[in-house]
Amino acid sequence: MPEAYIVEALRTPGGRRKGALAQVHPADLGAVVLDALVERAGIDPAAIDDVIVGCVSQAGEQAFALGRNIVLASSLPQSVPAVTIDRQCGSSQQALHFAAQAVMSGTQDVVIAAGVESMTRVPMGSNYRLHAEAGLSEGPWSKAILERFGVREFSQFVGAQQVADKYGLSREAMDAYALQSHQRAGAATEAGAFAAELIAVGGLTRDEGIRYDASLEGMAGVKPIMEGGSITAANASQMSDGASGTLIVSERALKEHGLTPIARIVNLTVTAGDPVIMLEEPIAATRKALTRAGMKLEDIDLFEVNEAFASIPMAWLQAIGADPARVNVNGGAIALGHPLGATGTKLMATLVHALKARGLRFGLQTMCEGGGIANVTIVEAL
């Protein structure tokens, strides 16, 4: 089967909600990434076959074909097509999968997979609330779906708490994990570990959400999101604004355009499970991906497990048995932010550059997603 390669993987800094990137339109935010990918790769933008953009809250400024609007806001010619997809938090990771699959099938040679989310300008759930504004009693889930699973709604907060309870994760342990995320992200920033992947935008040159003064005492004072629960804003990912992207090409494109790859796609996996507990699925997805790739856990040098809530990577670590020192080595979404649809390719940028900086070979990225879905991508740094 033909190979798919990553030539560039870049991201904007994570902007705090209502922070430094609040005044940047989502289309312009995405355009910054597209322009940077093309410029750094040194490729003719007219050679791009397609742009696939992940975005979760496709409403307001992120509605009406956001992917196409990003292209129109960029320096790419209008001849470059684009599409917008939603696989919840894994939207841009799935964009990467679709891009790689297009290249591996031989139908396209140069595809950009990207993601954008402005959680300031288009608040989380904006599209979800439209049914109420239209005077409709039913939301995204019909009565038949809710009756089938015995719930009033599907909630990521409920799922995160269920994961914490199932794996015996205490509030104190999750706060300690969250503190580690801030400490790792802060240390990585001060050491310049993100320099190769970051694109300055809106005057922002570094991730805005890192709390350098974070403490267990401060975290202990944050109220639980749900009464009687242990999930809090302190041990959950930060709402943020951001964009990210990867340039995916075929071997033919490498030769034709004189490009140098930084990674090779090894495996693309997506699975689905219980939509109620929902966020536990990366465990099953990781096992399936390793099996399909013919690899063992020990073969993977670094892991990126999205920190939607501290309970998710902690449960994953407990179930999978990976070395914690190899997981989210530069911190995660608790410190760096989780701009929903942009997080997939954001994590890939961090993973690939972390592998190269350390002289390591294989990396695995996984993402929990609404509806009980999970993506896993395995790459080889070159």
Automatic annotation (TrEMBL):
The active site is at residues 89, 338, 368. SUPFAM superfamilies: Thiolase-like. GO terms for molecular function: acetyl-CoA C-acyltransferase activity. Residues 5-251 form the Thiolase N-terminal domain. InterPro entries: Thiolase, Thiolase-like, Thiolase_C, Thiolase_CS, Thiolase_N. Residues 259-380 form the Thiolase C-terminal domain. Keywords: Acyltransferase, Transferase. Its EC number is 2.3.1.16. Belongs to the thiolase-like superfamily. Thiolase family. PANTHER family: ACETYL-COA C-ACYLTRANSFERASE (PTHR43365:SF1), BLR7806 PROTEIN (PTHR43365). This is Acetyl-CoA acetyltransferase. It comes from Sphingobium chlorophenolicum L-1.
